[in-house]
From TrEMBL:
This is Metalloregulator ArsR/SmtB family transcription factor. SUPFAM superfamilies: Winged helix' DNA-binding domain. Residues 1-94 form the HTH arsR-type domain. Transmembrane segments: none annotated. Keywords: DNA-binding, Transcription, Transcription regulation. NCBIfam families: HTH_metalloreg. The keyword Transcription regulation applies. The keyword DNA-binding applies. It comes from the Bacteria. Signal peptide: none annotated. PANTHER family: ARSENICAL RESISTANCE OPERON REPRESSOR, TRANSCRIPTIONAL REGULATOR, ARSR FAMILY.
């Protein structure tokens, strides 16, 4: 039962930070060099690296090295999976978790 929830909790944890949400928003426009991301924030390069590691580890962002810089891009498939999951848990449906088993309280 909880597998689809466990699969997505890491994404929500990764997004539970203002800077990381802003980074995802920036990457929605396309690939960016870490230097360009760093220009938008008042943080150090090691702090940016920490945020990017979290976003990459959950699979939402991909990075590729080019010289001394890393270029980051949004994993659109993972982003779509997250959107689909969020939609599925916020929409009434026949296979909703609330409809599993029988109610024993007598109220429905």
């Amino acid at each position: 039962m909880g597998n689809k929830y466990a699969e997505n909790v890491g994404l929500f944890k990764a997004l539970a930070d203002t800077n990381r949400l802003m980074i995802v928003d920036m990457l929605s426009c396309g690939e960016l060099c870490a230097c360009k991301i760093l220009e938008k924030f008042h943080i150090t390069q090691p702090t940016l690296s920490h945020h990017m590691k979290i976003l990459c580890d959950c699979g939402l962002v991909s990075g590729r090295k080019e010289g001394k810089w890393t270029h980051y891009s949004l994993n659109n498939d993972k982003a779509q999976d997250l959107k689909n999951f969020l939609n599925s848990i916020t929409t009434d449906k026949e296979d909703c978790i609330c409809k599993e088993g029988e109610c024993t309280c007598g109220k429905g």
